[in-house]
Amino acid sequence: MAYFENINKVQYEGVKTDNPFAFRHYNPEEIVLGKTMKEHLRFGIAYWHTMTQDGSDPFGSPVNIRNWCGETPMETAKNRVEAFFEILEKLGVEYFCFHDVDVAPEGDSLEEFFQNIDEITDLIKEKMDQTGIKLLWNTANMFSNPRFVNGAASSNNADVFAHSAAQVKKGLDISKKLGGENYVFWGGREGYESLLNTDMKLEQDNIARLFKMAIAYGEKINHKPQFLIEPKPKEPSSHQYDYDAATAMAFIQKYGLEGDFKLNLEGNHATLAGHTFEHELAVARCYDALGSIDANQGHPLLGWDTDEFPTNVHDTTLVMVELLENGGIAPGGINFDSKVRRSSFAMEDLFLAHIAGMDTYARGLKAAAALKEARFFDELKEKRYASYTTGIGAKIVAGEEDLESLTTYALANDEIKMESDHLEFVKSRLNDFLF
């Protein structure tokens, strides 16, 4: 059965097309800096927002029109697999991501849940074998069920920890079965509401214990995907342990996880943490820990996780600058952790939204490539930090100075000349590359 029978495979038609179901900027085979766009961007689609999100919000009932709902939860789950791969094939996207509960109903017990997952992932594997589409990453949803009210690995209840461990084990078994390239830990409720009744050290120690169990099990089954932590501040807990990239890296270093874990960073989560997306990516790059990204954007007037499709060329350009400086994103990718707006409830909006996001990232890639070829940022930084390449600055960098020698230097060079950054002009010049 075709779930989108009126939509053909989406093709690149260029900026002059008036076809809404065509790419205007994303040309997968176009060469940019020696690689195809497809290789640079490694697009993935999120199963949860695409297949299970119903358009409801805290103030309104579901509005999304979807034709894959069956008579039973398992029938719906099977229909979703068919519809999802139709979307992937028609968009030409080669990767996808999912939580365990996205693809299979939980049923009445953990055993039934695992049986459902096995049945549905058998279908997914068939579709993967038929199409060549690959699993970018999967993860365990350990935040939605009421058992996770106080967290998963950070829960005060050891039975919840054990249940979480079982879900992670199953997730890694599925990852091996489907050839997953990454495995994500998103601690949706790994945090606390109040310190009055919280043992913060025990909770963080327990999270690290679960991570180390995952590493050990991956080695045992001879499957070692790139493990990723996805930082997020605030909601749903008042204080999340993985607040932002810097906080997550402090955790990784404290528990000796550097060789096994990198970061999966999301645009909207950066906004909620009070950062720009490029800031979070730059922090991860400083630690050689930029693993993968979730491509979306937040709404500047709303203080919650809106997960909008990315359409801001300025922002995606600066994201792509970081990815190019990182030497690419593989084995990670650019996963659209994005949901259509409540008013975009038609089936076709799933295509229109992803086309918009893919075109925006393609524009960002092309602008970032032009900036790199022009050495725009390189020249700015070389000029700004020129004092560290000669004289006293070079000696500081080389470790040849100490407090006493620098005091002697400062006393003899009391007149310091500062130069303007001309930042407004720099931003204006950046616009020339964007448009």
TrEMBL record:
Example GO biological process: D-xylose metabolic process
Keywords: Carbohydrate metabolism, Cytoplasm, Isomerase, Magnesium, Metal-binding, Xylose metabolism
Superkingdom of the source species: Bacteria
Residues of the active site: H99, D102
Cofactor(s) in the UniProt record: Mg(2+)
Binding site for Mg(2+) 2: E266, H269, D305, D307
PROSITE patterns: XYLOSE_ISOMERASE
Any single Gene Ontology cellular-component annotation: cytoplasm
Binding site for Mg(2+) 1: E230, E266, D294, D337
InterPro entries in UniProt: Xyl_isomerase-like_sf, Xylose_isom_bac, Xylose_isomerase
Bilayer-spanning residue ranges: none
Major localisation: cytoplasm
Family in the record: Belongs to the xylose isomerase family.
HAMAP family for the chain: Xylose_isom_A (MF_00455)
Protein name per its UniProtKB record: Xylose isomerase
